[in-house]
Structure formats: C-alpha cells, structure tokens
UniProtKB/TrEMBL annotation:
Its cofactor is FAD. Belongs to the GMC oxidoreductase family. FAD binds at V85, V249. This is Choline dehydrogenase. GO terms for molecular function: flavin adenine dinucleotide binding; oxidoreductase activity, acting on CH-OH group of donors. InterPro entries: FAD/NAD-bd_sf, GMC_OxRdtase, GMC_OxRdtase_N, GMC_OxRtase_C. Residues 422-557 form the Glucose-methanol-choline oxidoreductase C-terminal domain. It comes from Limnohabitans planktonicus II-D5. Keywords: FAD, Flavoprotein. Residues 6-330 form the Glucose-methanol-choline oxidoreductase N-terminal domain.
Length: 572
C-alpha cells in the first residue's frame, strides 16, 4: 500500500468485481486496484463443491449477517450468507448457472428507458465470457467462439473496447453438467412432467419453464469461482493491476467541486492495522454487493437524509433510494420421507458412507462431494392463471432443519419452491456510523397478500407433483409442512415457519430514469448526483430476475466494463 493513486478503484473482489478487474486492467495504460475485505480464496472448502456447507456460517468466508425478525416469518430471523472471500458469493454459492427470463430484461429496459437492457441486447454479454460445455450456438458462448460485439475501427489498440472487435469470447466462465444423478430425483422429474411441467434441456434461452438438472459453474468436478475465471492467472500477471485483500472500505471520499457538484475521488481503507486513503483519477466502482455497497454509501453520507442524521452520519448527498427496494427469493422447503431408495441422509450418516463419498470424489471427482446444494430444477406456474412461470423448484436428495444443521436420520428429499417475482420489498440500513458494525437487513418476506397467495398455491403444486405415479414406488410421506394444513391461511403461515432465503438479495441501489426519485443509479450505473462513482453489482437490478442471480450479475459487470471504457475513451 505504497503508491496510492489509481485510475480505477474497484471495491469488492466478488462476482462483479473480479470480472471488472479483468476487463479494465486489460488496458495497460490504466492502473487498477481491486479491494477485497476478505482473504484470498485459498481455503480448500471453497473449491470442493459441497464445501458450501463449511463456508456458510464460517467467518473465514462469510460476513455472518442475520436478518431482522420478520412478521411474515412469524418473528423468525434468518442467517444471511454473503461471501467475504476473494470471489465473493461465487466462492460459497450454489454454483447454479441461471439467467432468468427474457421478460426480466425487457422490464429493466422499460423501467430505465434504456433499450440496452433488453434481452436481445443483454444476451451477447452473457455469451461474451461464457464457456459452455456444449459449445457455442445461438444462446451460448464457448472457448474460442467469436464475439458478436464489434467496436469502432478508430479506437486505439490496447484499449478494452478495441479488444471487442473480433474478440475471441468464452473460455472464462465455465458451465458444465453435474457429475451425479439420483433415482429419486429422476422420478421427481418424471412426476413433474406428469403434473404438466414440460421437460427442457436448457433453462437459459429466455423462457425457463420446464424441469431438468441444473447446469453448474464447475470445472472437472471443482467449483469454478470468479477469482479463478477472471483474476488468475490473467490479472496477476499484469503490472498495472493490484489486489489488496483483507482491505475493508470504511467510506468513500467525496469532494465538492468548484461548481458545487459532488465527485468521488477515492476511498478510505482499513488495512487491519491502519486507515489508508486511496485516490482514483477516473472512477470508484462499488461492487460490494446488495448489502455491502449500501453500507458503504450510507456511511459515506449518501442515502436517505433522515436515516443518516439519526446515525450521526453527515449528509453528503440525500439519495432516498439507497437501501430501499430489497428483493429476495424465499424458498419454502417441503420435506418428504421416502422409502426404497438412497438419499444423502442415509449415505452421509455413517462413517462408511462418508468414507465412500470421499473416496469417490478423490478418484473420480464425482458423487455427493461434487454436488451443488440443489441438483434438479423446475420452473412452472403457481396456478394456471399466471401468464408465465412464476415459481422455481430446487430439489435435493436430502433433508435437514436448516443449512448448517445435521441431516435427518431418515431417507428424505426436499422440494424447495420460491416465488420468482415477489411483490414484498425490504431494506438495508446502517445501525451505527461504524464500518465494523453490520447493517440492519430486513427483507420483509411475505408482506403482501399476493406473495402469501403464491406461497400457498406453490405448496399445492408441490403436493400435486408428489402425488404423481412416478413417485409412488418411493411412498413419499409429507414431513413438512404436513398434510393437515390445507387452507390458504394455514399454508401461508406454515410457509413462514419453514421458509428460508436462497441468498438472492438484489435491488438496494436500483437503476432507473433520471426523474425517478428512488433510483440510485442511472441506466449506465452511475450514481445520481455524484460524479466518478458507479455501482456494479446485483443491487442495481430494479426487479429481481426469475431465477438465480449470480450469472445476471456477471452480465451486468460485462456491460458496465464496456461503458466505463467508453467514458474513458470519450474523455481522452
């Protein structure tokens, strides 16, 4: 931490930050600093797929957040994992590759007034970094495939935008088939089809309705996080790139310009020993996630004025949308006891079973240790009147009371179902003016009648699937929530008792039109009213995507990298 002036400072070495560091440091004339509050990703459980069980709730890799007690969860609070390690949440998440639905992005374009967010304008940016095991086609990129994005001829060689002309895409973000299967999950997929959910071979073509095994971000049986994909060896070999880990940003440096406008010129970083001031000549880019970026903004005096004053923070820029609009996917975890088949409950509850699981992974990189938290997925409608698939299943050959708790002693499966497009909105707010103190996270689950109705209906869809002929050989018995609960009111209340997050917080720094008072960033992700500052992470999503959120966050970062480079070229 000697030379403390850079062109770009990226705050957060997670999903978005890792890709941004790769793209922006490709221009050798720009000095790029990547700041990560956690340690490097050299913890072995980060790389073994089942290691999420040992990373969530572990201070080595997790911020250890808890939500505020929620009325919709009958007063419960939830563990709220966020990656505190290089690679961020991509180092501890479920590894599921999912883009959502085309309508999600068309809706963003409408909300922001910018057609660059439409599905047809975002698809090339998904493909740009994708290395799909099936190879390149209309919907997927792969190592060695050509980019569809062309840059103007007159750009200087060496600039990031110049590399887009005829760029060889793919080869970074690896997507593979899972390396295991389960008889009981195959039967669930058949039962889903018998219940009217079509089979699919690809969830990522813009309409994800159907049932199939998930594709995952793995390579040869190992987790493939964004640190592997985008930072090493590429960035580490660049002399214009620096990574500081165990470096937590306490606040932004905001200066008032001669004309009275505000500009972000750097950050204050806690090194673990001292506070260090770092300057950015071009931009500071917040990629600390839907929780972390909000906390940094609010501690820096950017946010709702009344909140900031109440916490003793001087108001730099009154921006009421900072920390509002929190959305998340709440999964309702129905558990069914089964018979006549193996599940992870029975395999992992004996020393011999654990030894066999470990040996299979050591020899073949297959089996339960290569497992994503959820293996089988399904997207369908909570009731026939819905215009599109509005619920998602994560189906697992195991059961437990909660992540981090022991597996049940009896054979069972869990059919978790979530509302893809919740109408409930929550918030993230600092509790104190100290950067060391976690903020208050209040997702406000099941706060609306619409969300409670979808919760009740989705439990009925689960029951319908489990009653199909394909499941009968396994004699499924509903353990949770229990067949005695039938009415909408009963099911919604029980959903509050057994539901948990799938860890998809978005929307807390949402983008919008210039005349939208609650928009935090504009359509190109620049913070409204503060020059030299952008937010590039899942917080900018105005509405949550219809599926897992990690890969859409990468797409957002890919687009942002191009915009940042365009702005630099225009200013040169």
């Amino acid at each position: 931490m000697n030379d403390n002036t850079f062109d770009y400072i990226i705050v957060g070495g997670g999903t978005a930050g890792s890709l941004l560091a790769n793209r922006l440091s490709a221009d050798a004339s720009r000095r790029v600093l990547l700041l990560e509050a956690g340690k490097k990703d050299d913890y072995h459980w980060v790389h073994i797929p089942v290691g999420y069980l040992y990373c969530i709730g572990n201070p080595r890799t997790d911020w250890l957040y808890q939500t505020e007690p929620a009325e919709g969860l009958n007063g419960r609070s939830l563990r709220y994992p966020r990656g505190k390690v290089l690679g961020g949440c991509s180092s501890i998440n479920g590894m599921i590759y999912m883009r959502g639905q085309s309508r999600d992005y068309d809706q963003w374009a409408q909300i922001t007034g910018n057609d660059e967010w439409r599905w047809d304008q975002t698809l090339p940016y998904f493909k740009l970094h994708e290395d799909h095991y099936k190879g390149a086609n209309e919907f997927h990129g792969a190592k060695g495939s050509k980019s569809e994005l062309l840059a103007p001829n007159d750009l200087p060689k060496g600039s990031y935008l110049h590399t887009l002309r005829g760029r060889v895409a793919g080869g970074e973000w690896r997507i593979e088939k899972q390396r295991l299967r389960w008889d009981v999950l195959d039967a669930f997929a058949q039962a889903a089809q018998q219940a009217g959910i079509p089979a699919t071979d690809d969830f990522n073509r813009g309409d994800n309705e159907g049932v199939s095994y998930f594709e995952v971000n793995q390579k040869n049986g190992w987790r493939w996080n964004t640190a592997k994909a985008f930072l090493r060896p590429t960035c580490y070999a660049r002399p214009n790139f620096e990574l500081w880990n165990k470096a937590q940003v306490a606040k932004l440096i905001i200066e008032t310009q001669a004309d009275g406008s505000k500009r972000c010129t750097g950050v204050q970083v806690w090194s673990g020993v001292e506070m260090v001031e770092v300057k950015a000549t071009r931009e500071v880019i917040l990629s600390a996630g839907s929780i972390g970026s909000v906390q940094i903004l609010q501690l820096s005096g950017i946010g709702p004025a009344d909140l900031l004053k109440s916490k003793g923070v001087e108001v730099t820029h009154d921006l009421p949308g900072v920390g509002a609009n929190l959305q998340d996917h709440l999964q309702i975890r129905s558990v069914y006891k089964v018979k006549g088949t193996k599940t992870l409950n029975t395999m992992a509850n004996s020393l011999l079973g654990k030894a066999m699981i470990g040996l299979e992974f050591a020899m073949k990189r297959t089996g339960p240790m290569s497992m994503a938290p959820s293996q089988l997925g399904a997207f369908t409608k909570s009731d026939p009147s819905q215009p599109h698939a509005n619920i998602q299943y994560h189906v697992q050959p195991l059961s437990l009371d909660a992540f981090g708790e022991p597996l049940h002693s009896f054979p069972a499966i869990t059919a978790s179902v979530c509302n893809l497009n919740p109408t409930s909105r929550g918030s993230v707010q600092i509790k104190t003016s100290r950067f060391e103190d976690a903020p208050a996270i209040a997702p406000n689950y099941l706060a609306t009648d619409a969300d409670r109705k979808v919760a009740a209906d989705s439990l009925r869809v689960t029951r319908s699937i489990m009653e199909q002929p394909a499941m009968k050989p396994f004699q499924p018995e509903e353990f949770k929530p229990g067949v005695q609960y039938q009415t909408d009111e009963e099911l919604a209340k029980l959903a509050g008792d057994i539901a948990s997050t799938i860890f998809h917080p978005v929307g807390t720094t949402r983008m919008g039109r210039d005349d939208d008072p609650m928009a935090v960033v504009n359509a190109r992700l620049q913070v409204r009213g503060v020059a030299g500052l952008r937010v590039v992470d899942a917080g900018v999503m105005p509405t949550i995507t219809s599926g897992n959120t990690n890969s859409p966050t990468l797409m957002i970062a890919e687009k942002a990298a191009q915009w940042i480079a365009q702005d630099a070229e225009a200013a040169a």
